[in-house]
C-alpha cells in the first residue's frame, strides 16, 4: 500500500518555514540582573536527487516561495536535512554554557547547534548566530547561499533546577537555497552531522527514542563539594532525559581533516536537552491546525476525519510523569527528566498538578496553531512549574531519607546495646 512508502517531508518543511517566517517569535527580555544572551543557528538544506537537473544560479537568492517551486526541490526523492554539531568535550574548547550536566556513559555522543554567547559588540542575536557559525565551522551565513527564515521562540537557560537564570537563548533558522555551497571548514574539535529530517518525523522508520543519564548531584551541588555530591547522589540517584538516537552522518566532507585522522566515529549520536527542545519547536510548525468549522480547506493526511497532523502518529513523545504527549509541540516538556528512584518520580507527580495544567494549555495552543497566545511564555512557565515540583519532591524525599536513617541508626543502637 502507499502508506508503506516513505513520504517526503519537503512539503512539510515548506509549510513549517513559511509559518516561521510569518509568525512573530516570543522574545524574552533579559532582566537587569542577568543581561547575558546567546544565539544558535538551525541550518537546513535540501539534498537533491542524483538524477535532478539544476537551473543556472540566479544573480540574487530566491525567495522562500520561489525555492520550494524549483523542480529539484519538489522531486519526491529530494531529502531535507538539518545540521547538528558534535563537539569533542574532552578538548576543553568551546562555550561551556551549553553543557547540560555530567553525563554518564562513554559510548554515546551528544549533538548541538552551532552558536554561542553574544559578545558586547554584536548587533543582535542574528549577528551572534552568524558569527559563531563562521568561527566554528567556517560557514558564512551572510552569503547568498543562505537565507534567514526567521526565529523560533526565545528560551531560558537555567541552572540549580530552574532557580538561577544563566542567559536567554535565541534560535535562528537558516535555509541553504543552492544545491552546491562552499565546503565547511570546522575546527578540529567539531564534527558536522547532517541528519535527514525524515529520520525525525517519518514513520518508516520511526524515530528511535532513548535516554541520557545525568548525575543529579551535578545539578544540585557545587562542583567543589565532593562529599556533598556523594551524599546527594545516594539520596536522589540520577536523572534520565529523553533523547532521540540519530543516524550517523553520511557526509564525510563535513569532518575536518584532523578529526577524520584522529577521531573515531561516535558510537551513538543522541539529540536531547535544549537541542531536542529547539528541534521539536521546529517540528511543531509542521503540524496542521484543525480546520475551522465549515471551511473544508484542510484535509488531514491519512484520510482520517478527526483533526490530526502528519506527525501525530509518528512523533509520540515519551511519557513525562505519566502524562503521554499526543502532539509533537510541547517540546520543552519532552526534555524534562525522570529520576532513577521511583519515589522521587511519585512525589514530582504529586506536586506537579500546576505543571500538568500548563502542559495541557500548551498542547491546546499547539492544536489551535498558537495564533492567539503569542504573549504566553509556555516553555518558561512549564519549566518553572516543573522544577518547582522537583524541588518540593526532593525536600520530601531527602527528609524522609534522613528520618529513615535516624530511625535505622536508633533501632540498631537499641538492638545492639539496649538488649544487653
From TrEMBL:
<protein>
    <recommendedName>
        <fullName>Nudix hydrolase domain-containing protein</fullName>
    </recommendedName>
</protein>
<feature type="domain" description="Nudix hydrolase">
    <location>
        <begin position="35"/>
        <end position="218"/>
    </location>
</feature>
<dbReference type="InterPro" id="IPR015797">
    <property type="entry name" value="NUDIX_hydrolase-like_dom_sf"/>
</dbReference>
<dbReference type="InterPro" id="IPR000086">
    <property type="entry name" value="NUDIX_hydrolase_dom"/>
</dbReference>
<keyword id="KW-0472">Membrane</keyword>
<keyword id="KW-1133">Transmembrane helix</keyword>
<dbReference type="GO" id="GO:0010945">
    <property type="term" value="F:coenzyme A diphosphatase activity"/>
</dbReference>
<feature type="transmembrane region" description="Helical">
    <location>
        <begin position="393"/>
        <end position="417"/>
    </location>
</feature>
<keyword id="KW-0812">Transmembrane</keyword>
<dbReference type="InterPro" id="IPR045121">
    <property type="entry name" value="CoAse"/>
</dbReference>
